[in-house]
Amino acid sequence: MVFKLFRATVAPFFAALLALATSAPICWAIPPGMVENGWEETIIAGMAKVSNTDYEEGLKLFDDYIKAFPQNGEGYFYYAVALQEKIQKLNDFGELERFNKYASTCKRILEAKIDKNPGDTIARMYLGAMNGYIGLIEGRQRNMLKAFLSLVDAKSLLERSLKERPDIADTSFGLGMIYYFASRKSSEVGGMTEWVINKFITNGRDMRKEGVEMVNQSIEANAISRDYARASIMWIRLYDRNYSKARELAVDIAKRYPKDAGSRWVLGRVALVNKQCAEAQTRFGESVEILKKRGLTPSRYQDVEIARAFASLCENLDHKEWDEAGRQVHKIDEWLNNDPKITLEYQDEKNLLEFWRRELDTARRSLRFIKGS
């Protein structure tokens, strides 16, 4: 039961329970009590659909579960999480109202269950996860303090759930992501947000290593969300500049999920860092095509087009096409100086933009030297 975090803060964070390989045989069992007997395959199939960005097909399966068990909180949970995934991956805030509706219903049912039976660990775990996803949506809207306050509740509920039911490996994934990204951001932010992180989440400790270990443990323990855990580790390795490991994970995820734009983005980023210009162009192009097929207009993912411009600049410099390289520099520079927004790598937006500015400055100085010589 877990989740990714959020924009420029704790991002790949609360995305648990959504990933099963569509190209590999299903070999995991949902731990007892998490869903109604006989409906395990429906939930697993719905998560696989959402993982491959087939959102409406996944939502239909979760809706079938809700209709069969309207008194259960987990059906509303899975439905809300699928909507959250759609909002995050497609930058589609048109689904915000529907997300809030299902998330609120989920919380109301689960809170009532816990009030009636304080020992209901499953309800507590789902409630913790739901609070996490609500925090994710708040963070995506840059309501960072609200996001972290939701995260505090999520951490408390999930930590207790893990103690009561250590057999549910997905909980370790969620807590691991909380520990890693909260620790990472505590060194970058200030004010009330930093105080909340240090006081209520990390206790002033750097828990990044512990967090990564917990995520890896969830993968080794065959968590339902193990493929999403792999995706989260992929992003972590990219942020930590372990490019070879990031690429290895991205290759595997791209194979499992043909409609996943994020893995192609990571492959493009790693290729560009390694000055593999044509490979970067190909991978970024694949991301664009996937997003176009989802009905997104170029204005919704300008950062991907700029990444392609960087790949073109790389090729121009490699082929000594100085004039065309100059045009790419101008294009990129104009975008970077006009309130740029990052879509696919929004979790690390600040660092990515700083990296791109350094790369652009290096290219600009190289061109000045070449043209002046």
Overall description:
Helices cover 70% and strands 0% of the residues. It is mainly alpha-helical. It has 2 domains: 211 residues, Serine Threonine Protein Phosphatase 5, Tetratricopeptide repeat (Alpha Horseshoe), CATH 1.25.40; 113 residues. The protein is globular, with a radius of gyration of 21 Å.
Structural key phrases:
0% strand, 373 residues, globular, 16 helices, single chain, disordered N terminus, 2 domains, 70% helix, mainly alpha, Serine Threonine Protein Phosphatase 5, Tetratricopeptide repeat
Low-confidence stretches: 1-28
- Second rung of CATH, namely the architecture of the largest domain: Alpha Horseshoe
The CATH superfamily of the largest domain turns out to be: Tetratricopeptide repeat domain
Q: What spatial form do the alpha-carbon principal axes imply?
A: globular
- Our Rg estimate from Cα atoms comes to 21 Å
Distance between the termini: 60 Å
Average pLDDT, all residues: 86
Structural class: mainly alpha
What is the count of DSSP helices, taking H or I runs of 4+ residues? 16
Strand content: under 5%
